[in-house]
Amino acid sequence: QSWKPLAGRRALVTSGPTHEPIDPVRLIANRSSGKQGHAIARALAELGAEVTLVSGPVTLPPPIGVTTVAVETAREMLAACQRVQMAETAPLDIAVFAAAVADWGVDGSAPQKLKKTPGAPPPAIHLVPNPDILATIAQSATLRPALVVGFAAETEQVIDHARAKLARKGCDWICANDVSPASGTFGGDSNTIHLVHHEGVESWPTLDKTAVARRLADRIATRFSPVTA
Ligand code: PMT
């Protein structure tokens, strides 16, 4: 069996959108397909890591060789990530947050389908902030993963906004990507990444999402020396 650089390392990856219910049949969602996050989970597993993927609702099959936990809302995603984080006494080695988490959920989603009443105004939807999963995990006092990688989905000033997120959320690297409609990043097959870290910025060419994932996994592997049994 060939040597794998991430053998013995534990990784958490988030992927896909979150769904925030308005009532039992309606929801707030976004255009994330999970292609990028799922590819990252698979690429880390291919390098030997023990990977748990926490995914919002997607149509992709769970990647082979990865433990997949399916969630719907941002709050469920945070709880699932924290369960992975707390599962063992030693901190996770790697956490990559590729999910497009809804920043807001619906305050008191209705237990029954909202009815259209003739002549009545449409219902008002009141939004409340969701927890920031990346920031919560990155700022954990005792169980912070050794390497925390976030994404930044931006439609303008991509690198400047990513630098601000790097500082604000407390992660080590940010994969900044342009998600303006013309880029086709949300749901599409390719991505153009600027890897922003405390030492500078590495701008990668446009690659398909599998190649982005392999490049990121290789980059992560260079940060860790092999674990000896
Ligand atoms: O799924 P695909 O169709 O393949 O598309 C991939 C992608 C565009 C979704 C992906 O490459 C990407 O950019 N993911 C992050 C999307 C996002 O929500 O970015 P953000 O800039 O709003 O958030 C910044 C970081 O904080 C992200 O790592 C995000 O996962 C995390 N976050 C955000 C809000 C929140 N409440 N909790 C979080 O953990």
Assigned CATH superfamily of the domain at 10-107 and 126-150 and 210-221: CoaB-like
Mean pLDDT: 94
- The CATH architecture name of the domain at 10-107 and 126-150 and 210-221 reads 3-Layer(aba) Sandwich
Which CATH class of the domain at 10-107 and 126-150 and 210-221 is shown? Alpha Beta
Radius of gyration: 18 Å
Terminal-residue CA separation: 15 Å
Q: Report the CATH topology name of the domain at 10-107 and 126-150 and 210-221.
A: Rossmann fold
Largest sheet: 8 strands, mixed
| Portion in helices | 10-25%
Which ions, cofactors or small ligands are bound in this entry?
Answer: ligand PMT
Order of secondary-structure elements: EEEHEEHEEEHEHEEEEEH
Strand order of the largest sheet: 5-4-1-6-9-10-12-13
Oligomer: single chain
Q: Please work out how many helical segments DSSP would assign.
A: 5
Strand content: 15-25%
In the predicted model, the low-confidence regions spanning at least 5 consecutive residues are none
What would the principal axes of the Cα set say about the shape?
A: globular
Strands, total number: 14
Assign the structural class, choosing from mainly alpha, mainly beta, alpha/beta, alpha+beta, or little secondary structure.
alpha/beta
